[in-house]
Amino acid sequence: MSYYIGVMSGTSLDGIDIALSDFSDSGEFGFIAAETFPIPTELHGKLLLLINNQETTLEELGAIDIVLGQLIGKLINQFLTQHQLGADDITAIGSHGQTIYHSPNSSYPFSQQIGNANVIAEMTGITTVADFRQRDIAAGGQGAPLVPAFHQALFRSLNEDRFIVNIGGISNLTLLPSSSKQAVIGFDTGPGNVLIDYWTQSQLKQPYDRGGQWAASGQCDNEYLSLLLNEPYFKQTIPKSTGRELFNAKWFEKVTHQYRHNINPADIQATLVELTTRTISDEIKTYATSKYQVFICGGGAHNDYLLTRLQDLLGERQVSTTEIIGLHPDWVEACAFSWLAYRTMTKQAGNLPSVTGAKHPTTLGAIYPA
Ligand SMILES: Nc1ncnc2c1ncn2[C@@H]1O[C@H](COP(=O)(O)OP(=O)(O)OP(=O)(O)O)[C@@H](O)[C@H]1O
Ligand SMILES: [Mg+2]
């Protein structure tokens, strides 16, 4: 039995998730504990500015990489103390870092995460695996999404085809066919909560629309929705991945300004939920087979209105969360990075070429020894 830590801070910038997992000698994953820690206001503001404006100096970039690394190191130490564990108990940390730019389709493709792993290894005294995406990109892949490989390991069933939908800032979908002859499919469908959060923050001055109550008070405007759905990303063929470089305030404001009719803020909110749920349900219908189930994870699993709309759009198919198949929806992503670190430390591939488009399976990440 070996213990691994997974650390994730996703596109929503809502907090840093830390998960503790164990792996049996045969590599079977087990969940032990997890927690979300807030990002201090000053750092949160700097990260948001950096990601939104895509402008900085080399000095600032270097500094913020260290500050985030120090925060992650401190939080891991705090988390381990809470669970009465020491550095020697943990084989490795898998730290995703904060994505500041994801550019898998450019002439010189890359995906850049920050949160300095040297600092994490130094502060915790634990071997740290980081920079998971670049190797897949070097092998011709998108470098994303990486979680479908973990979904496959944990959630695949021989009895039914399963869709796992992670609704974080961005939404990604994994199809796990029951037949081992069929390849796993996975890609980013587009916005998850990122636009819903942006509009809530700008209009209500709240971090998110709790339970989707505000959206539920509005009405979807179909003409406005069509304009949002015109985005070419939705029609792109797979493999594909996206991020805040595309779906951000600028994208939202540009499309919304093209809309010439009056629309009240609650109706905009309802339409943004519809954008998330329509793009997810359309993709599910594209790949749907006769016998499938849908399981949701990520923060979107707490948005009751969003789940109700998704259920309506998918008709008779029962939409549940991943909790009923073994892992609470809040911890899937962080656990995935503990699993990816386990794969790296045991010299096993972490990517799924059928998902990312990489030329071959490969071990991912860089190892920073304790
Ligand atoms: N009670 C709630 N009601 C409505 N929305 C919620 C609630 N709790 C969380 N959320 C939404 O979930 C988001 C956080 O989700 P999550 O942590 O999965 O995203 P993430 O960190 O961006 O991950 P990813 O890497 O998958 O993009 C919040 O920003 C918010 O929009
Ligand atoms: Mg999060």
Essential attributes:
39% helix; 13 strands; six-stranded mixed sheet; binds magnesium ion; alpha/beta; 370 residues; Nucleotidyltransferase, domain 5; five-stranded mixed sheet; 2 domains; binds adenosine-5'-triphosphate; 13 helices
SSE blueprint and pairings:
Elements lengths: L1 E7 L7 E8 L5 E9 L3 H13 L4 H25 L7 E6 L2 E6 L6 E5 L2 H8 L3 E3 L2 H6 L8 H9 L5 E7 L2 E7 L8 E7 L2 H11 L8 H4 L5 H8 L19 H10 L6 H23 L4 E6 L6 H11 L4 E3 L10 H14 L7 H4 L9 E3 L2
Parallel strand pairs: 1-4, 4-7, 8-11, 11-12
Antiparallel strand pairs: 1-2, 2-3, 5-6, 7-13, 8-9, 9-10
Helix pairs in contact: 2-3, 5-12, 6-10, 8-10, 10-11
This protein binds adenosine-5'-triphosphate and magnesium ion (MG).
Count the beta strands.
Answer: 13
Strand content: 15-25%
Head-to-tail CA distance between termini: 19 Å
Following the backbone from N to C, one meets helices and strands in this order, namely EEEHHEEEHEHHEEEHHHHHEHEHHE
CATH topology of the largest domain: Nucleotidyltransferase, domain 5
> Into how many domains do the coordinates divide?
2
Q: Major sheet, described briefly?
A: 6 strands, mixed
CATH superfamily of the largest domain: ATPase, nucleotide binding domain
- Rg (CA only): 20 Å
Proportion of helical residues = 25-40%
Per CATH, the class of the largest domain reads Alpha Beta
- Poorly predicted spans: none
Small ligands present = adenosine-5'-triphosphate, magnesium ion
Q: Strand order of the main beta sheet, please?
A: 3-2-1-4-7-13
Structural class: alpha/beta
- The coarse overall form would be globular
Number of helices: 13
Report the mean per-residue pLDDT as an integer: 97
Under the CATH scheme, the architecture of the largest domain is 2-Layer Sandwich
